[in-house]
């Protein structure tokens, strides 16, 4: 590490200690998070890209109050089938693909995140597996994450050019402790973040379903010792963060809800909604799901693995998707999804 880099890091660390960020910057908040946001007036003027299959004003008001929204039966079964067929191809033939996966089992310590070909096939088809950015290989994954129903809502919330940030694909429940996304999934503007949770099957209570605290997107932010974002200079841990969220939500009497949505539904949630993965009480019960994170081109003008570089960009339904610089010629290699017509 050079002297200049060392000095820069010391300056950043000192600034974080003396002037830690304690909230989102009000100047860059999405309009709907501002105190004077008027949904009815906005909807009168908003012109969505696609026909809206739900009551947009109702959904935006629900989001504004609760920090999430469910778009019921918005995704066609055929597209879900195409995507999951690609997932099955990947885990059946991992040696053919350039992709990263994470398996949270002690036998893979100290390196739980590896190239997919470096995991045994039987483990990839088991529990505690997370497939990272599979959408870069799968055209069906790109079309699913930019489905018109999702795009209409995100465009309304951000009122800027929406970009895909990352995706995670699961076979089983994550059992992840309570957290908020913005400290970990970070762009230049932390408040420019939303996520979609797309079930590939009806979600059962014994599968370790997602849970969330209603209205928690408005609660005071956690200080990691150097501000609201987690990094290698933070003095507080993820478990301390989880304890704070559970304790504070209880103090604020925020209801805790369990997500048992159906295949075809979509959950979209706010950057600061506190949520986690419930306990799996039936070890054989799957929870097939596709989780996608989104930002804006203002907040994320580059691929997160190549800070500052101009990305190679595709557009699907007006949403920017940056090609993964680590995947090379395998971008869109699973292309059955090209047959899908988003106007169906």
Automatic annotation (TrEMBL):
List the Pfam families hit by this protein, alphabetically. Answer: PhyH (PF05721)
Q: Keywords, A to Z?
A: Dioxygenase, Oxidoreductase
Q: Does the keyword Oxidoreductase apply?
A: yes
Q: Which Gene3D superfamilies match?
A: q2cbj1_9rhob like domain
Please report the name of this protein according to its UniProt entry.
Answer: Phytanoyl-CoA dioxygenase
User: Which cofactors does it use?
Assistant: Fe(2+)
Q: Give the signal peptide, or none.
A: none
Highest taxon listed in the record's lineage: Bacteria
MF term (GO), any? iron ion binding
């Amino acid at each position: 590490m050079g002297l200049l880099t060392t000095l820069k890091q010391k300056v950043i660390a000192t600034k974080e200690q003396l002037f830690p960020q304690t909230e989102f910057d009000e100047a860059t908040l999405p309009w709907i998070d501002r105190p004077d946001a008027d949904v009815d007036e906005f909807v009168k003027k908003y012109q969505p890209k696609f026909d809206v299959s739900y009551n947009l004003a109702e959904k935006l008001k629900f989001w504004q109050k609760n920090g999430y929204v469910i778009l019921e039966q918005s995704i066609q079964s055929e597209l879900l089938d195409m995507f999951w067929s690609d997932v099955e191809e990947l885990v059946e033939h991992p040696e053919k693909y350039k992709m990263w996966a994470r398996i949270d089992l002690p036998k893979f310590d100290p390196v739980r995140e590896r190239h997919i070909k470096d995991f045994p096939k039987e483990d990839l088809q088991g529990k505690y597996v997370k497939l990272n950015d599979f959408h870069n290989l799968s055209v069906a994954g790109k079309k699913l994450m930019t489905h018109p129903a999702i795009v209409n809502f995100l465009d309304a919330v951000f009122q800027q050019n929406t970009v895909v940030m990352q995706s995670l694909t699961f076979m089983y429940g994550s059992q992840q402790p309570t957290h908020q996304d913005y400290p970990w999934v970070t762009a230049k503007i932390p408040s420019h973040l939303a996520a979609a949770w797309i079930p590939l099957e009806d979600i059962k209570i014994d599968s370790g379903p997602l849970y969330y605290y209603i209205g928690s997107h408005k609660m005071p932010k956690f200080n990691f010792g150097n501000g609201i974002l987690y990094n290698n200079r933070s003095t507080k841990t993820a478990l301390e963060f989880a304890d704070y969220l559970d304790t504070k939500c209880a103090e604020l009497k925020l209801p805790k809800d369990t997500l048992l949505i159906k295949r075809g539904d979509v959950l979209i949630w706010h950057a600061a909604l506190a949520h986690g993965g419930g306990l799996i009480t039936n070890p054989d019960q799957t929870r097939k799901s596709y989780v996608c994170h989104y930002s804006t081109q203002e907040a994320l003008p580059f691929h997160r693995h190549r800070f500052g570089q101009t990305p190679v960009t595709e557009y699907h339904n007006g949403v920017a998707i940056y090609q993964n610089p680590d995947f090379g010629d395998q971008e869109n290699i699973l292309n059955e999804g090209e047959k899908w017509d988003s106007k169906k």
